[in-house]
Amino acid sequence: MENAAHWKYTNTATGRGYMEADIIPETAPIIHIATTQLESSDPQTKQTCSMERYMQAEHAVAALSRAKNVVLGGDMSWDDRTDMPFPLPAGGGWVDAWTALGKSCESGHTYDGVWNEDLAVFNGYTALFSSLKRRSDRFVCKLQDYKLERIEHKALLRHSHSCGDNILKLNPSCHLGVVLTVAAAPDEPPPRHDQPAAAAVAEKQGVASQAGGQNCMEMWEDDDDDY
Fold first, then answer.
1. Tens digits of per-residue pLDDT, 44-57?
2. Is 186 left (phi over 0), alpha (psi -120 to 50) or beta?
């Protein structure tokens, strides 16, 4: 890991920012990684901090867009019911990894206040149960030389803690872990040596060519597993 850096958001009241670094594999292109925690809501004052979150996310995505391959992940404190859509620039190659891999937003909640040690209580404030689930943690990516392979939740196991004669069963976090796997995208196969490159492209498109002739469909079937 190289070129590590930390940046603080200019509109944060709680010291939020993001960290970034380059991962340099031996046999694959450089991939830039970053993690952040955006401004969270304050249930006691009923401040959602939605605009602060949006501007922080927008700034981080814009700053990280200079990299060809970048993965940004973390606790975005995002609530899809009240916040604006996550600011991914149109046409910029950015995707939400969860939805890009075919997962539904409804199945993606990573935060549930009921998982807290003190059931729905936050400094004396009791939240409504309907407000406790949201897809707070997420990965957003811009990948040119890599592809998304899979994304999954990792449940955090409860553990017991002795306190005098009492045994407390605590959750280590009110968040689920999210694990994203990416892999280097395969290179396009080279054209056959016995025909021009243009003819190979024509065969890929399923168009009969003089060079391909009757072998066009056979070539398509042979290469089908590569895509």
1. 777 889 999 999 99
2. beta
Total residues found in the chain within this entry: 227
Q: What CATH number labels 2-184?
A: 3.60.10.10
Q: How far apart are CA 182 and CA 97, in angstroms?
A: 10
Radius of gyration of the chain (CA): 24
- pLDDT of 165 reads 66
| Residue type at 75 in one-letter notation | D
CA distance 120 to 14: 22
Burial of 111 by CB count in 10 Å (0-12 exposed, 13-18 middle, 19+ buried)?
A: buried
pLDDT at residue 175, as a whole number: 76
CATH 3.60.10.10 domain position(s) in the chain: 2-184
